[in-house]
Design brief:
The model is unreliable at 1-13 (pLDDT under 50). The protein is globular. It is α+β, with helices and mostly antiparallel strands. It has one domain. Helices cover 38% and strands 15% of the residues. The longest helix is centred in the middle third of the chain and has 21 residues, at 68-88. It has a six-stranded antiparallel beta sheet with strand order 3-1-2-6-4-5.
Length: 194
């Protein structure tokens, strides 16, 4: 090829180096998986938040709903900024509020959500233009700093490559820095893995 360009084989492409990466959605036992309270009309969201907070006063998964007025405002602003940053990096979100997952899971979040239902999806099944990642919880990070460190799938793969493509080493680093890597899915979801 001219100008020193090399032709890459399919196995050299980042997606093929990490074919088995999974993303996991956690759900409290008293909730339905893959529901996002922000996708409800505002009055329905507030009614559901009150119901969940009142019926689970000592449950970590719902403490944020006890002050839903502030959480709703914060989450709405956080999602808008996430979406804007993602679009600026070439993302093409299909929805306004993403589904939240975690790359390769989190024991911390499993406990946070009462060891409830888990939905597992192969990351390779999510189109590149419809998935983003943040270091740690996007809303908590936004609340602390007013911003997010958001990366695309290709940016994530480049970061993993810095760890000589060793996923486990990368995840140890992430979990030491911020417990988990949050995944935002900006499209309707493919079928979960069994």
């Amino acid at each position: 090829m001219s100008n020193g360009a090399q032709k890459l084989s399919m196995m050299d492409m980042p997606e093929h180096k990490y074919p088995d990466l999974k993303i996991i959605h956690y759900c409290h036992p008293d909730c339905r998986p893959l529901e996002n309270i922000m996708r409800l009309p505002k009055d329905e969201a507030f009614a559901l938040a009150k119901k969940l907070a009142d019926s689970h006063p000592d449950t970590t998964a719902f403490y944020r709903f006890s002050d839903f007025e502030n959480y709703y405002r914060l989450r709405k602003a956080s999602d808008a900024l996430l979406r804007s940053k993602f679009i600026s990096l070439g993302g093409r979100p299909d929805i306004k509020h993403p589904y939240s997952f975690v790359l390769e899971g989190s024991d911390y979040l499993d406990r946070w959500f009462g060891c409830g239902k888990k939905t597992i999806v192969s990351l390779s099944s999510i189109p590149d233009h419809a998935v983003s990642f943040t270091y740690g919880d996007s809303v908590a990070t936004y609340q602390k700093s007013g911003s997010h460190e958001l990366v695309t799938k290709m940016m994530l793969f480049a970061r993993i490559a810095e760890f000589e493509n060793r996923i486990d080493d990368f995840l140890v680093y992430i979990r030491g820095k911020c417990r988990y890597l949050e995944v935002q899915v900006w499209c309707d979801l493919p079928r979960p893995l069994p």
